[in-house]
Amino acid sequence: MPRLFVAAFPTPEIADVLATIPVDDSSGVRMVPPENWHVTLRFLGDADTATVIERLRATATPFAEAEMGPHLEHLGPRQVVAPVAGVDHLAASVTRATADLGDPPRHSFRGHLTVARLRRGATSRLPGEPVGGRFPVDEIVLVESTLSDTGSRYEAVARFSTVRAV
């Protein structure tokens, strides 16, 4: 079953920075493919797509300047992430607009971009690798995710421009 989430995608320049991260081919480590790099602003799960689109269209989503880094770290035992600051207000805006839709947030927002996933008990040499850069979040994207044996397949359902303060 497809699941919905709202995301900010890195610019091509930031994708180039992420592409310099060494591949960890350790057993139990799966690198996230570049086309799946994103910052999840709100995971909705099973929600009515049309209603989510309507809510996000009606929201003046604020512009954000995201700052990635300074190095990769673990987020729980099964993810290696690049921390991303500067998008908390954007995530809060999306969460307010969709508060009664989909799955309620399971934890407080922590901006990050996942670069690797770990099987239970696996270890990675990636935490501590330097990674950094700033990127504008000019739009947010409603994404449909379909899980498969080879990972997730993402499809952009709708895009919404952010609004710069005057």
TrEMBL record:
Belongs to the 2H phosphoesterase superfamily. ThpR family. A motif (HXTX 1) lies at residues 38-41. This is RNA 2',3'-cyclic phosphodiesterase. Its EC number is 3.1.4.58. The keyword Ligase applies. Hydrolyzes RNA 2',3'-cyclic phosphodiester to an RNA 2'-phosphomonoester. It comes from the Bacteria. It comes from Ilumatobacter fluminis. The keyword Hydrolase applies. SUPFAM superfamilies: LigT-like. Residues 25-62 form the Phosphoesterase HXTX domain. PANTHER family: RNA 2',3'-CYCLIC PHOSPHODIESTERASE (PTHR35561). Keywords: Hydrolase, Ligase. One of its GO terms (molecular function) is 2',3'-cyclic-nucleotide 3'-phosphodiesterase activity. Pfam families: LigT_PEase (PF02834). It catalyses: a 3'-end 2',3'-cyclophospho-ribonucleotide-RNA + H2O = a 3'-end 2'-phospho-ribonucleotide-RNA + H(+). The active site is at H38, H112. A motif (HXTX 2) lies at residues 112-115.
